[in-house]
Amino acid sequence: MTGDPVPKARVRRRKLFRLIWMVPVMAIAVAAYLVFHRMQDYGPEITVSFSDGGGLRVGQTPVRYRGVQVGEVTGVKLSKDEKKALVRIRLIKSAEGIARDGSRFWIVRPHVGFGQVTGLGTVLSGPEINVIPGKPEAKTEFNFTGLENPPSTIEGGLRIVVRAARPKMRADAPVYYRGVEVGTVQKLDLAPNSLSADIHIVIYPRYVNLVREGTTFWDVSGLNISGGVMKGLDVQFESLRAFITGGIEFASPPGTARAKPNTVFFLYDEPKKEWLAWAPKIPIPAEK
What mean pLDDT do residues 181-196 have? Predict the structure, then answer.
């Protein structure tokens, strides 16, 4: 029996072969499941045009409402006329209602001003897009024009326009009545005929009765220097904030009706003596 041939071992490679292929197949299956699961959370894709898309990154820049992420930037490109940045945004399923007429979008970037610091959370993460949805009954919309500045957070109030040849103040500058801040400059823009500038002002709700027909506005930006070498110099300014950002003050004549929203006034360089003598008794609601 010693001369019988020794049987050869059989190498079973089929199971090993199958195991090798199961790994990538399972990986593909898991990836497909994750993609499918994420697509289930996808809402509609919308397009928002901005004058500047600097810093917006595909797949990284979030879209937020009330601090909660409701979408993400999926594309940035120039418009056909090369004047706008077209930003594609994919909303999540639960926020698909944002794709309606009246929704307002703006880019949040870090901003430091006198008495106001905003957007510091974007210093390291980069800019983000914020949104305020339109009215629930509004029709569906997929194309929007982004705001250049954040919308006013002041509820109510009186919005008016003060026209000036060359204003010295900027957005967020204070508006005073008898030295008390009663409003703020919301934004500056060119007048419709481009011959002057329009200063858009919002008067705080408590003080809306102070602005009347015939109210006059004057510039309190910078310093007012008077006197001479012999008598000495008298340097005056309304406030440190007005010195830095510029400011506006106004006076109202007695016996006049309350101004209507969007009334256009004019800005003077300095007040006349009779304006400072006006002393109308205008009731102010108690502070809540």
Answer: 92
